[in-house]
Amino acid sequence: MKKQDFIKSVATAAGLSQDAVSKALTSMIDVVTSELKAGNEVNITGFGAFKISKRAARNGVNPRTGESIKIPAMNSPVFRAGKTLKESVR
Q1: Is the dihedral of CA 5, 8, 12, 14 positive or negative?
Q2: I need a surface site. Which of 10, 40, 54, 80 has the fewest CB within 10 A?
Q3: The model's pTM
């Protein structure tokens, strides 16, 4: 399902305009992104949690040349599904 399809489905289910749902979804994504940038975790009860995973620097290998390279430390976003979501998908 693409973003536009998701917006149409939510608008139909909630009885809202697609424009209103699009603005709400964009705002939600912006808030989650800004909170993760600040190092905070975002918990949505019954759905799941968004958090940042810190990856340590490590050595890797360039597959084309076989040359050893250094991969820098980085933060990576992670989503952990909540219990209600897991049970409903099973």
Answers
A1: positive
A2: 54
A3: 0.78
